[in-house]
Specification:
76 residues, GMP Synthetase, Chain A, domain 3, 3-stranded mixed beta sheet, 3 helices
Length: 76
Amino acid sequence: MKELLELIAKALVNHPEQVAVTEEESDGKITLTLKVAEDDMGKVIGKHGRIANAIRTVVKSSSSDDDRKIDIEITQ
């Protein structure tokens, strides 16, 4: 999941070298934190959050075999 999120984010941004994804697991919940450059935030979030929601949908559907909850946080 971490690799998938990183691959998608790098394809969207102007500064792919500044994309970083960290994974933290606790109590059966996985939190993926996506960090991008400040000027790439709009490209990752999209108008009204549509791109961010699409990214969340793809990552969550790729882990549908897992019973763990997945959260994705986007930071700069």
